[in-house]
Amino acid sequence: MKNRLLVVAGVLATLAARPAPAGAHAFLDHADPRVGSTVSSPPAALTLTFTEPIEAAFSRVEVTDAAGKRIETGPLQHPAPATITVSLPGLAPGSYKVTWAVVSVDTHPTEGHFAFVVKGP
Q1: Which listed site, 8, 42, 76, 120, has its alpha carbon 20 to 30 Å from 56?
Q2: Distance (Å, whole) CA 44 – CA 42
Q3: Structure pTM?
């Protein structure tokens, strides 16, 4: 009986010590142009890299200028499991806001936004 109690206590202790399953979410790891950066010339593309793979079919990226006008971008590309990119037209000097929303491969949605500035001549 005593051995049985020790085994049960050991199993319960092992189960209690296991970490809880992680709730995986794809957060923005880095962007090009960088978050909050000022670039000297207009970038040809915007690249967002996340902390885990994403489902491109359920992802979106929107770029707006300082007045809130939407900038037409190229189609969303998915060159790597955790990366999406869109081509940009020749951006005029000014401030731009990037708004993104993605779904990780395990179906957790995340969204966010950041700004960057294109330096004038």
Answers
A1: 42
A2: 6
A3: 0.79
